[in-house]
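Minutes, project check-in
Item: structure for the 89-residue chain
Input as provided by the requester:
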Amino acid sequence: MDGWVFARLVAVIIAAVTITAAAIHLARDSAPVSSSPSSSATPEAPRTDPLRVTLQRCRALGEAATRDADCLAAWDENRQRFLSPTRGN
């Protein structure tokens, strides 16, 4: 086999693999993510977790949060939720 023919064959194979990978990537990005049929009928409003709101406020406080009683209590509750052996939900 001539060197130029082999180089062209390799170039065509690489191009084909690249085009296929790009097509798969685009197909995955544009495909809608479907959830269960019952949940798509009526979207549920997101529930606001007061602990999450408090933790976000504490994160914004930075180092001052280490001296804030509300932040200390929120961190303790968050640890209890995370480390509990059973979930209440």
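Outcome recorded: The chain has a mean pLDDT of 83.
No further action items on this chain.
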